[in-house]
Amino acid sequence: MPKVDNEVIINASVGEIFNFISRPSKLQQIWPSFIEITHEKLLANGGYSYRWKYKMAGIFFTGIGECIDLQPDRLLLSKNIGDFDSTVKFTFQSTSIRTRITLAIDYKVPLSRLGPFTENMILKMNNKEAGLILDNLRIIFEET
After folding, report:
1. Which residue of 23, 42, 86, 130 lies most exposed, with the fewest beta carbons within 10 A?
2. How far apart are CA 120 and CA 132, in angstroms?
């Protein structure tokens, strides 16, 4: 299973960043491939379930996501099931007014739907996007 792993340090409090990321509907502001997130529902664990529409290599995919582990200001782990399956893990480390965020994504590449694209090409595209996601997050908190 391919894995994407990237991190960033943001000059903002861990609580502010965690509260932003913990809402699936906010992910569309930082994650270019999320086309739509709907049916956001609060779960007993403090996380959310949701439906998603995603675009990878020009092809649309749909599914459902659910927060399976939430530790405020430390960890947010979601599982996605649908046209392709994945786990998305955000970890947070606070250093006074700065926060280190690590994004790790494990997923199964849906090669049967991606035609001529190879797993290696998709992995490179997704690695690049992980950096963009975290940079977009940094911009929201440092440049607004």
Report:
1. 42
2. 19
